[in-house]
Design a protein that fits this description.
This protein is α+β, with helices and mostly antiparallel strands. It folds into two domains: 89 residues, Alpha-Beta Plaits (2-Layer Sandwich); 76 residues, no CATH class. 27% of the residues lie in helices and 34% in strands. The protein has a six-stranded antiparallel beta sheet with strand order 7-11-10-9-8-12, covered by helices on one side. Strand 9 and strand 10 form a beta hairpin. The radius of gyration is 30 Å and the shape is globular.
Length: 202
């Protein structure tokens, strides 16, 4: 009787050891990490040549918030002249969306879109203040000119006036001070004269 109990105990111990061994070597189920989707952000959309307005309209119809900076330019012909609206940044439209796979497909599948500017077509977010600065500049009717892209310099903020709060890079040439507003993603810059404006370093 004692021998049977001993054998039964040995069998139970062996079965338990086998179970523990199987658990330790069993393939572990991979952890499913939560999919993190950032909130609404601005992105630069590269378009085909002269398709900026068409892409802007198509994206709006698809429920995407867009911003297409336009400037007025007087075009002259031999027999007439006409004031036309042209894109400020040729072949670019700004769009604000959540960078999910579905939204990226919806953007790039729009006719006239070349790509979302960024690595591997995923897009690089544009800081809100960069887009807001261009929006305020166009709304203020302050004269500005295209200038070479500026990346390094002292950042300042305008205080007072219609451009209050607009940030940019302070540059000077022959005693003239200008504020350069840049969109780093597409490497484009605009410059406005700072005469009559107070600025403070950031």
């Amino acid at each position: 009787m004692a021998t049977r109990r001993l054998q039964s105990g040995l069998v139970n111990d062996t079965l338990q050891q086998n179970k523990n061994w199987m658990k330790s070597y069993a393939p572990k189920r991979p952890r499913t990490l939560p999919r993190v989707i950032p909130g609404l952000q601005w992105y630069a959309i590269q378009t085909r040549s002269r398709h900026e307005k068409f892409v802007d309209s198509q994206l709006k119809q698809r429920g995407v918030t867009t911003f297409l900076p336009l400037v007025n330019e007087l075009r002259r012909w031999s027999d007439r002249q006409k004031l036309v609206q042209l894109p400020l940044f040729s072949s670019y439209v700004f769009a604000r969306f959540v960078a999910s796979v579905e939204n990226r497909i919806r953007i790039v599948s729009t006719y006239g879109v070349v790509s979302i500017v960024g690595n591997r077509g995923e897009g690089i977010p544009i800081a809100d203040n960069e887009v807001e600065s261009i929006q305020r500049l166009l709304a203020s009717d302050v004269p500005f000119v295209d200038c070479p892209f500026v990346q390094i310099g002292q950042r300042v903020r305008i205080g007072g006036g219609c451009m209050h709060g607009v940030e940019g890079i302070l540059v000077g040439r022959k005693g003239n001070r200008s504020l350069v507003i840049s969109v780093e993603t597409i490497e484009r810059s605009l410059a406005i004269q700072l005469e009559g404006y107070d600025v403070e370093p950031i």
